[in-house]
Specification:
By secondary structure, this protein is of the alpha+beta class. It has one helix at residues 23-33, and strands at 38-43, 56-61.
Amino acid sequence: MRSTAAAAGGAKTSWPEVVGLSVEEAKKAILKDKPDADIVVLPVGSIVTADYRPDRVRIFVDTVAQTPHVG
């Protein structure tokens, strides 16, 4: 897999620079480079389809941002 730029056309295919950012910040950075991206946010370890869609970018998250509570 190519890391950040495809050989033809220079289109980005991954965004290692967003690791550690909030989901919203990551989406903003990805959409800046790929405005037509269909961004899907999933928990780490989610089962995903193996089909390739050039417009889809998956963001995997694993951090609890707030204390869970009943109610």
